[in-house]
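Lay summary. Proteins are chains of building blocks that fold into shapes, and those shapes determine what they do. In this project we predict the shape from the chain. Here is one chain we studied, written as its sequence of building blocks.
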Amino acid sequence: MSPRRFRCAFAESAPIRARVCRAPSRCIEGTTALSAAKPLSVQDFCQEMGISRSTFYEWRAKQTAPRCIKLPNGEIRIRRAEYERWLNTLEEAA
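And here is the predicted shape, written in a compact code that computers can read:
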């Protein structure tokens, strides 16, 4: 029987081969820690927010979008932790 996989902050610090949660009561079942740490693409971000790409780029121009990472190939990514932090700041401001 293979171990159950969870998205977990505890497992993220473990080596990639060992990223299986040791505290499942605090985790969200269904994803590995590696996939939880995977940055969002612009398309993924827009789908989660329900906005168009042009709206995302308008927010970036106004510096109201979450901080982004620009990859060497020019693509933009948003770290999941940054996305969640950004959402929390919007919640507090509302």
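What the prediction tells us: Residues 40-93 form one domain.
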